[in-house]
Amino acid sequence: MAATMRAWQVPANGEPGDVMRLAETPVPTPGPHQLLVRVKASALNFPDVLLVRGQYQVRPPLPFTPGVELCGEVVAAGADVTGFAEGDRVIGTTALPSGALAEYALVEAADAFSAPAALDDVQASAMHIAYQTGWFSLHRRARLQPGETLLIHAGAGGVGSAAIQLGKAAGATVIAVVGGAAKAEVAAKLGADLVVDRREQDFVGAVKAATGGRGADVIFDPVGGDAYTGSAKCVAFEGRILVVGFAGGTVPTPGLNHALVKNYSIVGVHWGLYRQLDPALVGQAHETLCGLAADGVVQPLIGGVLSLDEAADGLTRLGAGETVGRLVVKP
User: Is the confidence at residue 165, as pLDDT, over 90?
Assistant: First the structure.
């Protein structure tokens, strides 16, 4: 194994294209509970953009290497690690500041899982965060039932596309909201029963028309801002609005009197807390998702495969909302 590697570095916070530098850095050494992983593929996530900007809830010390998710091969294990061997193919979240936009990365052993055999490296790299988030959102937090109507914002995005597949697998009627005709086509291919292009029509009216005025039982919102505002206008009696993220850049401030009068729930989804507080549930969800991958239900939508040199450009496009599914970097 080489003593040095190519890795993207963030020496100061800002826009990815302005501040990220591709450098030759030492290969990191795993701590007692960590794995050193040769990166085979790294899926770009919106938190990567926020980390580079310095806007994420976690702020790693500068300089750091971004890339929160990977599929890779175990090269070495820390002294206290059990259950992993050299050569094992794994997926998981990285231990910053040694992220996945590099040739090697560190992963806490507790955050590493066997890669699903049904998926290649690129697909597997895009499974963990999006599908775990979708699974916990729909099943653990919303208790989605067969026959219910599920409204998904940013349906052609990495997390939204996963939610469409999981919602259909759960027996829901899925309405996907997207921005633009190309993304509408993608959401329809993913299996959404109704696709609404928010640039062409008002999604609130479309949801009410599709449900006979009743509204959506469960609303999956990784966007915030206007998406949330509209969601509150078309949520059903006893509906659940899942607050998954704020990719639109605006954190809503909902009126709780409205939730009371219309009798709906506003439900926060912070998947990372399960990793901290109930990791056994994450492991169970992983087994379930691997089974769904083997059945062909879980098929991560890959919007493009980039070289390591193109990673900063990929994050710029992701931050601008110009991507479909997951962009994946192959070192």
Answer: yes
Which residues on adjacent β-strands are paired with residue 265? 240
Q: What is the pTM of this model?
A: 0.94
Backbone region of residue 92 per phi and psi (left: phi > 0; alpha: psi in -120 to 50; beta: other values): left
Produce one character per residue of 287-309: b if its CB has 16 or more CB atoms within 10 Å, e if not: eebbebbeeeebbbbbbbebebe
Paired tokens of 324? 């479909």
Amino acid making up residue 5:
M
Q: Is residue 103 part of a domain?
A: yes
Claim to verify: residue 187 and residue 111 sit in the same structural domain: no
Q: Which of helix, strand or coil describes residue 214?
A: coil
Structure tokens at 316: 């710029």
289 φ/ψ angles, rounded to the nearest 5 degrees: -65, -35
Under the phi-then-psi rule, with left for phi > 0, alpha for psi from -120 to 50, and beta for the rest, what region is 249? left
Residue 238: inside a domain, yes or no? yes
The rounded Cα 258 to chain-centroid distance in angstroms is 29
